[in-house]
Amino acid sequence: MKYLAAYLLLTIGGNTAPSAADVSALLATVGVETESERVEALIAQLAGKDINELIAEGSSKLASVPAGGASAAAAPAAGGAAAAAEKAEEKKEEAKEESDDDMGFGLFD
């Protein structure tokens, strides 16, 4: 991700085709060590491609990814009765514990 971020910063800064050396130099200015193989692999994958088109394509793909909220909402509805019974038991147990906590002694008695 840091290599891609550096690449994007360079393109925003006006360098339309950043090289591996450009990315490494930018990251070196902030004290980040780079792995040349990974930087070169990124440059090879992005060579000849318009970064704005890639971002637009990725955004359209992300729009089709489900958020997963529906399955989480369905779970409480399915086990509602069991959950209510468990809560009732927990409340009874908590009430017993609370009465034993002070054992007749108050903090300021």
UniProtKB/TrEMBL annotation:
GO BP terms in the entry: cytoplasmic translational elongation
Pfam families associated with the record: Ribosomal_60s
Classification via InterPro entries: P1/P2_N_sf (IPR038716), Ribosomal_P1/P2 (IPR027534), Ribosomal_P1/P2_euk (IPR001859), Ribosomal_P2 (IPR044076)
Biased composition (Basic and acidic residues): 86-95
GO cellular component, one term: cytosolic large ribosomal subunit
Origin: domain of life: Eukaryota
Record keywords, A-Z: Phosphoprotein, Ribonucleoprotein, Ribosomal protein
Family of the protein in this entry: Belongs to the eukaryotic ribosomal protein P1/P2 family.
Protein name: Large subunit ribosomal protein LP2
Organism for this UniProt entry: Entomortierella parvispora
